[in-house]
Design brief:
The chain is of the alpha/beta class. It has ten helices and eleven strands.
Length: 292
């Protein structure tokens, strides 16, 4: 039990929130989510039952989860799941926790293929399956392929796909385009690693797989590979959409233009940061234009 807690929901949450402040950007929310998990209740129930007495066994389990959270373990790992758009995904050690910013990548891709019937879609770096499964749910007519280098992460995708009855997907293990010789798609999407080796944010992300976060000394190495090789895997009129760091928009636009993509545009996330950039493959050099 957190120090100074009185054994009731209200007191436990107050003490837990205070204890989590040095380790979390959302200590009160984390405290509520973890207690709701232990009690098998909702956050709304906690707010309405502040005087409910928590028994010793429940308090002990709660204290254990709080200790792990204070050590930096993601809340999603402690809960075993994370919400993403309309999906509830199983997550845990060995897989990147889906971020809200990545929802913009899905929304962008869906808009890019909105008018195309039965599109061929490719998701590079599938991870837990957040992007590939959100696309499958929104476009059941699409033929979708997901590629992931980590066998551990791909196992999460397969379990999530089966649980969500979205198992009609092609899931391949390999590095980027490696398992796809000669194949082309209407749209390629990717949320690759885009942190630099010395990025200061890594200290708070120590529990998540480094290979899903760090691209190399520059942070743009994975983006550069995906973009440079995209024309070899896009059908004429196809598109590429990638998520990137908030300071990488200009470099991603340059890489896309250098690779011959056109109609290049960057979307901003809800915080106003450049987050997703997309371009079109026309196979016509005369159509090149300045990115926006």
């Amino acid at each position: 039990m957190p120090p100074d807690a009185d054994g009731k929901v209200q007191g436990l949450l107050a003490a837990a929130g205070a204890a989590l402040r040095p380790a979390s950007d959302s200590p009160d929310l984390d405290a509520e989510l973890l207690l709701a998990q232990v009690l098998g209740r909702t956050r709304a129930w906690l707010k309405a039952h502040g005087e409910h007495a928590v028994n010793a066994s429940e308090a002990s389990r709660y204290a254990g989860l709080l200790s792990r959270r204070m050590a930096g373990e993601p809340v999603a790992y402690l809960l075993g799941h994370r919400g993403f758009l309309h999906l509830e995904l199983e997550v845990g050690p060995g897989v990147l926790v889906p971020r809200p910013e990545t929802e913009l990548l899905v929304e962008t891709a869906l808009e890019l293929v909105r008018a195309r019937p039965a599109p061929l879609l490719l998701d590079l770096g599938t991870g837990s399956g957040a992007v590939v499964l959100a696309l499958a749910q929104a476009r059941p007519d699409a033929r979708i392929t997901g590629v992931e280098a980590s066998a551990s992460a791909l196992s999460y995708t397969r379990r999530n796909a089966a649980r969500l009855a979205l198992a009609d997907l092609e899931l391949l293990e390999g590095s980027w385009y490696e398992p796809l010789p000669g194949r082309r798609f209407h749209c390629i999407v990717s949320n690759p690693p885009y942190l630099a080796t010395d990025d200061p944010h890594l200290a708070k992300l120590a529990h998540e797989p480094r290979t899903a976060l760090v691209a190399g000394p520059l942070g743009t190495e994975a983006l550069a590979e995906i973009i440079s090789r995209a024309p070899d895997h896009l059908l004429p009129g196809g598109c590429l959409a990638v998520e990137h760091g908030y300071r990488q928009g200009a470099e991603v636009r340059r890489l896309m233009q250098e690779s011959g993509l056109t109609a290049i545009h960057t979307q901003r996330d809800l915080a106003g940061h450049e987050r997703v950039t997309h371009g079109e493959y026309t196979n016509d050099p005369s159509s090149a234009q300045e990115p926006s």
